[in-house]
Amino acid sequence: MIPDKNQLxxxxxxxxxEIASYRSVLEDLKQEWGYLKINDTSSLISLLQIKxxxxxxxxxxxxxxxxxxxxLIIDWAEPKPPxxxxxxxxxxxxxxxxxxxxxxxxISRLQQEIHQVNEQNKRFIQENMDFIRGLFALLTCxxxxxxxxxxxxxxxxxxxxxxxxxxxx
Length: 169
Known about the structure:
The structure is a single chain. The chain is mainly alpha-helical. About 65% of the residues lie in helices and about 5% in strands. The chain has a two-stranded antiparallel ribbon with strand order 1-2. A hairpin with a 5-residue loop joins strand 1 and strand 2.
């Protein structure tokens, strides 16, 4: 059992903050999706800065959680100390164990949702970039030379078409 309930409460408080930050990142990604759909680049750019702050906050909180966890188990009496915060569940009273399990499940679910929305946004951006590359290719690259045959079996080619965009710099 963990003797210092104040340390455990401090750890739980940090986990609450971490979950709140994950929720902020998820909301940022959902807003990003909205901005991508309406092509609002100025809002998208300012949102990216906010999202970076939220991600940095998660990283800082993760480090604080790790430090608090290390302080909590520094004088561990049993031969094999827990490796993560969530490994504490068998060593704490049932209400705190349930709370730690809830934190673990919530963080895992939020990470999965963040990954899904981020992949959706990434696919949308990639498809748009591919579309734009295709348009530029139509404008800058002449079509492939087509060979056709005429009566008598000779090979003839059409004269190369000029590009719509000048390639001279």
